[in-house]
Design goal:
Helix 2 crosses helix 3. Strands 1, 2, 3, 4, 5, 6 and 7 form a 7-stranded mixed β-sheet that branches. The protein has 8 helices and 7 strands; from the N terminus they run αβαααββββαββααα. It is of the alpha/beta class. The N terminus is likely disordered.
Length: 224
Amino acid sequence: MQNSSIEADLFPLSWLSQYGYCPRRCGLLALDQAWVENAETASGRIQHERVHTARIERKGADIFLYEMNIFSRTLGVNGKCDCVEAYESPEGVELPYGEGQYLLYPIEYKHGVIRQEEEYHIQLCAQAICLEELYGGSISKGAIFYINAHRRDEVDLTSDLRKKTFETSERIREMLMNEIVPIEKYSAKCKKCSMISVCQPKLKRTAKNYNQSLWDTVLEKEAR
């Protein structure tokens, strides 16, 4: 389904959610390869590792695909679906995993309690767009499964949400092309962000620029 030439031109699908949460957070991760883990992100990672194993399960005529590799050339992303539920239906699409036709229903797993986060919906919508490009058909709904609550929240994959998904993808591609980490804007989200020590959102811009200029000077001398 994927190959190295395709992957070379794509960025991780998960960056859509990172950018939706905070453009600077995504920039630090994508451009500076910076990542800091806190108790919340560590707990989420461990929970994901416990429930995620690439596998195919069958229940009657229906198929459940876990850790499914996907990509989209129009969005410019690649990644994985935590789970895709495929229900046999004459209105569905053909899959290489079974006979007949199937309606696809992507599910994204998230840590924590149920909450309405647009960046989660954008990430889920991107998965649906990938599946539509790969197999055809149209996917109208998906769900966010909240591991702690052990409940799913259904999401309508509307035209407005699809537009926001493509807009977010375009902003990320522009950021990668320009190689500029977005300027931070301090907000309530910063208090829970694991990247706050790297981002330093309350540090004055003049001081940050000065420190960056010193670091750039060091790098230039080492390069000579």
